[in-house]
Write a structure and sequence with these properties.
Layout (H helix, E strand, L loop, with lengths): L2 H5 L3 H6 L5 H13 L4 E5 L5 H8 L3 E6 L2 H13 L5 E4 L12 E6 L8 H14 E13 L9 E4 L2 E3 L17 E5 L1 H7 L3 E15 L8 E17 L5
Parallel strand pairs: 1-2, 1-4, 2-3, 4-5, 5-8
Antiparallel strand pairs: 5-10, 6-7, 7-8, 9-10
The protein binds S-adenosylmethionine.
S-adenosylmethionine binds next to α4.
Length: about 240
């Protein structure tokens, strides 16, 4: 065992990944209003903060992850509140649903786990699984991130176990986990067959849940720069 399976067994990680990301909150609110997006996949859903959010907003929610503990935690939380989602355990290089099936795909801090070629293939696989007009929200590690260059180099800009989150909650870091770091140009290249709606460069923020349902306290993680992209599938490449 190692990597995320081990990380999700610790309380620290589960707590810090339980409050939905602010950008995802905005986006899901917009999708909800538009009523054109109903079926949403969370790729690399972890303990399911966004699957829970989607299900509670009434979306047809799907989560995919290779961590059994992550999915079990997600399933328990949904069940406790009478919510439903379809959870699948597997590698994100295989999305076991028909092409054109999803209205939207979220890939928050997940799709960059691989070499540049694997990431490129992952972005294309997501495009295939989206319907024309469907949206993808994904995050990518930036080369300005303080962890760039740490860990074992596997190819240019790709490192194994760069000690991501180690000081926060992961005693052994993400041992055995590959991370690819991107420039803006590369992110644009990954999404060359999509129409890009927005691309932002931001520090990651994670939140501790507030006590007794109060407001969460947000922790900016210094120099943890990520790219955040929203892109749409267009029919010229369908
Ligand atoms: C940083 S966590 C993010 C979890 C979730 N997206 C969120 O924002 O709360 C990354 C997740 O990606 C999953 N993951 C990494 N590589 C994967 C792969 N090849 N196939 C499936 N899941 C993967 C890990 O198990 C982990 O749950």
């Amino acid at each position: 065992m190692g990597g995320w399976e081990q990380i999700w067994q610790g309380d620290g990680a589960r707590q810090l990944w339980s409050v939905p990301d602010r950008r995802v909150l905005q986006l899901t609110a917009k999708w909800n209003e538009s009523k054109t997006i109903r079926r949403v996949l969370d790729l690399g859903c972890g303990v399911g903060r966004h699957v829970y959010l989607l299900a509670s907003l009434g979306f047809e929610a799907y989560g995919l992850d290779h961590s059994e503990t992550g999915l079990e935690t997600c399933g328990r939380r949904l069940q406790a509140d009478g919510l439903k989602a379809t959870l699948h355990r597997g590698d994100m290089s295989v999305i076991p649903y028909p092409d054109g099936y999803f209205d939207a795909v979220l890939a928050f801090n997940s799709i960059y786990h691989g070499t540049s070629q694997q990431v490129d293939k992952g972005v294309e696989l997501v495009r295939r699984k989206l319907r024309v007009g469907g949206e993808c929200f994904a995050t990518f590690l930036s080369r300005a991130n303080r962890l760039y260059g740490k860990g074992e180099a596997m190819e240019p800009h790709t490192f194994n176990d760069p000690r991501m989150y180690k000081e926060l909650f992961a005693a052994d870091g993400e041992s055995g986990v590959t991370h690819h770091f991107s420039s803006e140009e590369e992110v644009r290249h990954f999404f060359r067959a999509y129409e890009i709606e927005s691309l932002e460069h931001e520090e990651l923020r994670l939140a501790l849940p507030g006590k007794n349902g109060g407001a969460p306290s947000w922790l900016p993680i210094r120099k943890s720069y990520f790219w955040q992209i929203v892109a749409r599938k267009v029919d010229r490449h369908a």
